[in-house]
Write a structure and sequence with these properties.
The complex is a heterodimer of chains A (about 230) and B (about 350). With about 230 residues, chain A is an all-alpha fold. Chain A has one domain. In chain A, α2 packs antiparallel against α7, α5 runs antiparallel to α10 and α6 packs antiparallel against α9. Chain A starts with a helix and ends with a helix. Chain B has about 350 residues and is of the alpha/beta class. Chain B folds into two domains: about 220 residues, P-loop containing nucleotide triphosphate hydrolases (Rossmann fold), CATH 3.40.50.300; about 100 residues, Alpha-Beta Plaits, CATH 3.30.70. Chain B contains twelve helices and 13 strands. In chain B, the strands form three sheets. Chain B has a six-stranded mixed beta sheet, sandwiched between helices. In chain B, β11 and β12 form a beta hairpin. In chain B, α3 packs parallel to α5. Chain B starts with 15 loop residues before the first strand and ends in a 22-residue tail after the last helix. Classes of the chains: A mainly alpha (about 230), B alpha/beta (about 350). Chains A and B meet through α4 of A and α2 and β5 of B.
């Protein structure tokens, strides 16, 4: 709840005044706050997705074992997976709604399109949550989550055009960043937040994130079944 | 133990609820359940006894339609558990070995959420919740969070929860493991009432007294197969002498006594780490005869044969020893914990 508020305050307002003083041509001529806010929205959705789809999923079979309880009912493993994924998506959406409101309050956006940045961020979260939940069900120990956060979340947060434009990266790294799901989400949210929508590019982002979500939903039904129905 | 005649043992052996033929479950190279046959009838209480790793839980999971058989036939309520698992589960109640309650929710909320898994309307769940909490004597804790409840109360809540769909078959995997004696008796009492109401009970246990209390019929399971089956009384008559003489000797004399007594004219002698059991027709006579050989036990006890003796005879192991890993006999069996790696989680 407060995380995004602090990010917006520290990065957008405090760091922003420093950045803005040196000219914002590389940001596309907008204030740093306007540049960074939609990225905070998208990466916040990713973070929420990662925390909802990692330990809680693993714990549902290993610790509080509520999947084992649910499994004794008519629910099938796929039902359990999709039900939990719906819950995660709801949490991600609630988070994103809050950040969107903050953005408006802080004056980080003035475009009516920002209303669509909310579902865009939620879709970004889902694109992470579904495959990560699917993967979490294949684990025997929770150790791997540390790698997810260290080698997944951190670099994505830093190198997906969140805090600085991708044009600042060397060419080969830029290509790498383009294919990451977070950049797709950041760019989509940013276009909507700035009210400067390149429709074909936006559609590519939506298609990419939808495909990743769909893959996760497909994979989760399988990994849940393999784990629960043995 | 035998229940008052004429009350509950009048099981109509006409309707088979669970039928298994050559039922097998394999995990990789390990065969957990090795071709077992059984029929479970409506209204009876059927027990699976055995040490950890004997295949009880795997059998329970197959009956609970959450584990596909690797071989053989299995029909539950006349249907195929693989194809109709969801429909069958709608008519089963399951009390898992370890509590799987939502500890962050209240007692009532647990039943609400669980009832919704079964697609029951909220109104129905509300009505049943009142009756069920009353049944397990938890009405006054209805609004409390689950986490601080004692083990016994949690178990009772788990039982109440498993009854939310008014199941025809209730599957209980070690229902009283880890409970104190008083809490166990409350659970037994509630299960006994359920049986009187016509609910079919299937339970696993490694407590002999539990099996004697609750089961009309039981099987002793070992290494994935049935070592014996029958009513508790049958099994005791078949596999145990009328009386058992328990002798305890000082540490120095124990081995000497063991050597002497194995040739003793008893039906059978069993040498445990701390005592010697003689299976005899008359315990007092036997004790006199033991003393006649010049042996003087520190303590002696004459008692009737129990399921524990049956189990010892059939598997060569005492259940409580397997439980604590304390069996010190020469043929001390390896703890089955080694198989845990291939047994599915949960």
């Amino acid at each position: 709840m407060l995380g995004p508020l602090f990010y917006l305050g520290a990065m957008g307002l405090a760091l922003g005044t420093l950045v803005d003083r040196h000219g914002t041509a590389s940001l596309g001529g907008v204030s740093y706050l306007a540049f960074v806010a939609p990225a905070i929205l998208a990466s916040g959705a990713m973070n929420a997705a990662m925390s909802e789809a990692s330990y809680p999923v693993f714990g549902s079979i290993k610790w509080n074992r509520i999947y084992i309880a649910a499994q004794a009912s008519p629910l099938r493993p796929g039902d359990i997976f999709r039900g939990h994924l719906m819950f995660m998506t709801m949490r991600i959406a609630m988070n994103a709604a809050l950040v969107t409101v903050y953005m408006w309050v802080f004056g980080a956006t003035s475009s009516p399109w920002v209303v669509l940045a909310w579902p865009a961020a939620t879709l970004t979260g889902l694109a992470f949550a579904a495959p990560i939940a699917a993967w979490a069900m294949t684990l025997q120990t929770e150790m791997s989550f540390a790698y997810l956060f260290r080698f997944g979340m951190m670099p994505l947060m830093l190198f997906s055009g969140t805090f600085f434009p991708l044009s600042q990266l060397p060419g080969w790294l830029r290509v790498l960043a383009y294919v990451t799901p977070l950049w797709q989400g950041v760019d989509l949210c940013r276009m909507l937040s700035l009210g400067d929508v390149d429709l074909p590019r936006a559609l590519i982002h939506v298609a990419y994130l939808t495909a990743l979500s769909a893959f996760g939903v497909w994979a989760g039904a399988r990994t849940y079944r393999r784990r629960l129905y043995v | 133990m035998s229940h008052p005649p004429g009350s509950v043992n009048q099981v109509s052996h006409s309707e088979v609820l669970v039928r298994a033929r050559g039922l097998t479950k394999r995990f990789g190279d390990f065969t957990a359940v090795d071709g077992i046959d059984f029929d479970l009838y409506r209204g009876e209480a059927f027990g699976f006894l055995g040490p950890n790793g004997a295949g009880k839980s795997s059998t329970m999971r197959m009956i609970g339609c959450v584990s596909p058989p690797s071989g053989g036939e299995l029909a539950i309520l006349g249907r195929d558990p693989v194809r109709d698992g969801s429909a069958i589960r709608a008519r089963l109640g399951v009390v898992p070995q370890e509590d799987t309650l939502d500890v962050e929710l209240t007692v009532r909320e647990n039943l609400l959420v669980y009832g919704r898994y079964f697609g029951l309307p909220r109104r129905v769940i509300r009505e049943r919740t009142d009756a069920l909490l009353d049944f397990v004597q938890l009405s006054d804790r209805a609004r409390d969070k689950v986490d601080p409840l004692s083990g016994g109360l949690k178990r009772r809540l788990t039982i109440a929860r498993s009854l939310i769909n008014e199941p025809e078959i209730l599957i209980l995997d070690e229902p009283t493991t880890g409970l104190d004696p008083q809490a166990r008796h409350v659970v037994w009492d509630r299960l006994f009432r359920l049986k009187q109401r016509g609910v079919t009970l299937i339970l696993t246990t490694h407590y002999m007294d539990e099996a004697e209390q609750l089961c009309d019929r039981l099987v002793v399971m070992d290494h994935g197969t049935f070592a014996a089956e029958g009513s508790p009384r049958d099994l005791i008559t078949r596999y145990c002498s009328p009386e058992v003489l328990e002798l305890r000797f000082g540490p120095d004399e124990h081995e000497l006594a063991a050597d002497k007594l194995t040739d003793f004219p008893a039906e059978r002698a069993e040498v445990l780490a701390d005592r010697i059991l003689l299976y005899v027709t008359d315990g007092d006579d036997a004790l006199a005869a033991v003393r006649g050989t010049g042996l003087e036990p520190l303590t002696s006890l004459v008692r009737r044969g129990t399921l524990e003796d049956v189990f010892l005879r059939l598997t060569g192991r005492r259940l409580e020893d397997l439980w604590s890993g304390g069996y010190g006999g020469a043929d001390s069996p390896p703890m089955r914990g080694g198989f845990r790696g291939v047994v599915p989680p949960g």
